[in-house]
Amino acid sequence: MSPNHPSGASLAPPPPGFGEPLPIQPSPETVALLARRRSASASVLGPPGPSGQEIELLLRLASRVPDHGKLAPWRFILLAGEHKDAWVARLGAIAQTRPDAEKASAALGKAGPSPLCVVIVSRAAPHPKIPEWEQFLSAGAVNMNLLLAAHALGYGANWITDWYSEDAGARALLGVAAGEQITGHIYIGAPAATPLERPRPDLEQLVTVWRAGDQPRPR
What we know:
Blueprint: H1 28-36, E1 45-46, H2 52-62, E2 74-80, H3 81-95, H4 101-107, E3 116-122, H5 132-152, E4 156-160, H6 168-173, E5 181-191
Antiparallel strand pairs: 1-5, 2-3, 3-5, 4-5
Helix pairs in contact: 2-5
């Protein structure tokens, strides 16, 4: 169960049925979560991890993303318990075969501590109407939804790609096909340290208000 809620899975209503009205309503709780969401360092995530019921809920919430054409161009790989430990150990062996063995091995310090890792794999493929980049963005949205869902249940979470997202041996270890891309490893657990706020983008440097008659110049 969630470290900050006695029954995290009960927070969500049952999945709506097809065609059921879903009114747009204000949600101050969601605004507050978004305003203060902060990734926890993967190196400080430990037990307890989400229960089986909570994992099912996390994946259900993560899947509620924009998906043009209803292709579900992504899939999940779950790593938990002794199986996750075995995965990290095998990654360690692969790291030793790489030219950057020392750096690659050190990166695995963030892979080991958390009780759960959800690997999100993009299945973007040629389609007559939906460009592959749009399908890939949908997979990225799944990553973000999962981070938010974990936070909402009281867990810490961190989105990491690192070398084992692209290493051929590491991909083969998880059965990732040649045409697939790992968009992230989402590590989830109870943070041993409270995350601290970091610098955020200066929106004044990033926002352009377009007006009719303007002739924008490339930045």
